[in-house]
Input
Amino acid sequence: MELLREWLFLRNGYLRVRVTGHAAERFLNLCGANGMDVWNLVPCGDGLMCCMTVPAFRRIRPLAKKAGVRVRILRRFGIPFFISRNRRRVGLYTGAAAFFVLIYVLSLFVWNITFEGNYHYSRDTLLNYLETLNVRCGMRKSLVSCENLEESLRSAFPEITWVSASISGTRLFVRVKENEALSAIPQQDSAPCRLVADHSGTITRMIVRQGRAAAAVGDTVEKGQELVSSELSVMNDSGETVRYMNVRADADVYARTEYAYRKTIPGFYKASSDTGRKRYGLAVTFGSLRLGFLAPAKKERLWDYVSESRQLRLFEDFYLPVYGETITGNEYVSYERFYTKQEIKALAQRVHDQYLENLMEKGVHIIENNVKIQRDGLSFVIEGTVTAEEQIAAAAPVESLPEESAPEETQASAS
Output
């Protein structure tokens, strides 16, 4: 309500006046009794200063005469007085008209594309797909068909189950909902195969569900050695082998494995330190045109720059094709220094922890691990060993066997 009142005063214009005389309070009472707006009262010498509307000022002459005061205009505010003061400045009105024409022209295009609800598909992925549909920033809003866009996104991305596209201001707003469940159940491979060791180790546990075991618990196997064969024999009621067949071997084979790594790092590294000096700059990007300002610096100094860019907008959804960028530069000096004992120890621990983390991501269960550091001239050698238990069975192709092979005795009697 207060903002509306201030806007009305600016639109119609108001005056800042000074009331002098010994009966200024009586003058204010008379103004209030006659329904005149008077505000921002400030005592001043033998009178006071206040604000009043233009219509009220035109009616105060008899009231000022009755109260015995003098009223003098100090300043004029509002749109009518601004226009009156600048009525001969043609360039000002031309520039204002050009500004509003430019805003209208810019409002006919899309200058920002926003996605909401996309988790499986990144924003860059969706933007690249919109490029194939010729939907991009800078195109006419009238050329964007939200219905066709929604249908195309649902067809191109199976994980998206619901799409809503709308244009507000100069922004294309695309809301999507992705399916949390798998869109299709992956088909299991049923081709015959055998299982081989993908890492050397000693077998600790073994559960064969399909196929014939080619190794046993306690055996030490090498990488590539067969663990479970795909060959099975089919027997008749008499226990005689009728034929051989290949199946898809299936088993859980766990083994105790050993890992070792070795990494050499220099005994010194490059360090940097901030000097405390800073530089600030601004840049404006309009399309492919970029205008930047940054105070010059001495060439021998090193600077690290960080920039933050934002797209300008007039209202919530009225984006402009203009990007403002703030640039902050921090001066630093670079030098080489040797690792201390604590630093090299911490570095070795980080290398070792990263190695263990990579193993655990593959499902390896760590049983024992250790790391040691050795100095080699100006370098350090980090050596680590890991004892683990893991699943070592991996599928490998097999050669097909004849579907049926008669026993030797049967072949002899037939001859």
User: Anything to note?
Assistant: Residues 2-84 form a domain with the Alpha-Beta Plaits fold (CATH 3.30.70.260).
